[in-house]
Here is the input.
Amino acid sequence: MSRLALSTSWNIARHKDAQSLIQEIKLIGFNRLELNFTLTKEMVEGAALLQKKGEIEVASLHNYCPIPDGLTPKIALPDYYSLASLDESERKEAVKNTKVTIDTAKRLNARVVVFHAGRVQMPDRTVDLIKLYSVGKKDEPA
Here is the structure.
């Protein structure tokens, strides 16, 4: 098996439980994985059980993992609660849920936690850049 780890974000949209999610990852040759930020508590516990059985190794978690209480996988984003928020209540939620992720990582012996410390508000130019690229103007300014 590879020493590389594959994130569950690769195939999470196709699965509702940890067993099938992880089985697909194992079928392509990975037994080390990152638990991504859209996993429910039940899925994280399913992964923990598979790790306890020696079937997988959890290399890392992507904050927030598991998803915070009250959120669904469809709206759970790594910066749903921003650690850099100017709003104190949002920042407190971010810290509280980051602690849950860190505690989960410790329990699963994951050595890495990936997190987003904040974001810069700026216009999204991605669509403009894609349009330029599609008409052969990849080297021109947006």
Q: What stands out?
A: The longest strand covers residues 57-62. Residues 5-134 form a domain with the TIM Barrel fold (CATH 3.20.20.150). Strands lie at 5-7, 32-35, 57-62, 112-114.
